[in-house]
């Protein structure tokens, strides 16, 4: 609650400041996305004497940090939860007087003239940091059962799922984290993994293997949901042998991966393999949008630091 109040206050203050003092547009760094990548990039840019402005489409900062519910164990130098980490990050943003806007989405970018457009505003920039993360992939065949038997996440519906048999589709962090959260209160959890091995962090997988009511099923593809008025479970096919089977379950959680939010990138340019800057232009791509296969917060903040330094050199070349 305190966090939201602070966010609202900050939003208002940001608009006041904008009205009073024109931003030195030769140093304005537009950061699209208020997840850990965008927030870290803003902190680093501020330290470089640049003027970051974060645009976040949802009503709150944090991006995927809001989806991590187990304590963090692989973020060096920090012990705690993702929400504690976010609280600290937001406090730092506030202390540094960094400007951000919530609930505004960048819809279009005129790369030639360095202008980005929200629904009702145009924002000029000297350099752009794309930190748009990724989006959840949905399965269209699940639509008829959404909310009643099918959910995009277990959090928020844990009570509804109590004592039931749950199938989780997916083999990444989200799938395993949800399985670990649910296991103590449900009868059984089946994790359906499309490939031969899970993508999730090793310690999630090891924990899940030790819990007796969690089972892992490999090479399982969800064919379709039975077209029946009453939900009866899933129809599966083995992705190598094609062998079909029906999995009886009460509820399904979809955690079948993410797709990078790259819609705003210029069509001809994809994120570089190793570098962060797009083809010598004033565009940097950082975090999960660049690296959706192996998402990691430490990589996000490292890329944020690197991008801000590169931008600083790019805007004020020596000599
Ligand atoms: C369940 C789960 C557990 C995880 N556990 C760990 C862990 O233990 N350790 C670890 O290192 N990593 C973990 N990760 C991965 C980590 O959370 C991500 O790598 C990291 O949070 C990605 O940050 P990001 O800022 O790049 O992207 P995101 O957090 O996805 O942020 C992108 C932001 O951009 C905004 N946005 C997108 N498009 C626009 C637009 N057009 N205009 C304005 N805003 C826009 C989005 O709303 C979003 O807020 C986990 C992830 C999940 C889902």
Automatic annotation (TrEMBL):
Gene Ontology molecular function: oxidoreductase activity
Keywords attached to this entry: Flavoprotein, Oxidoreductase
Residue ranges of the region described as Disordered: 1-20
This protein's record includes keyword Repeat: no
Every FAD/NAD(P)-binding domain range: 28-290
InterPro entries for this protein: FAD/NAD-bd_sf (IPR036188), FAD/NAD-binding_dom (IPR023753), Ferredoxin-NADP_redctase_2 (IPR050097)
Domain of life (superkingdom): Bacteria
Any single Pfam family the record assigns to this protein: Pyr_redox_2
The protein's name in its UniProt record: FAD/NAD(P)-binding domain-containing protein
Organism from which the protein derives: Endozoicomonas numazuensis
Lineage, top ranks: Bacteria, Pseudomonadati, Pseudomonadota, Gammaproteobacteria, Oceanospirillales
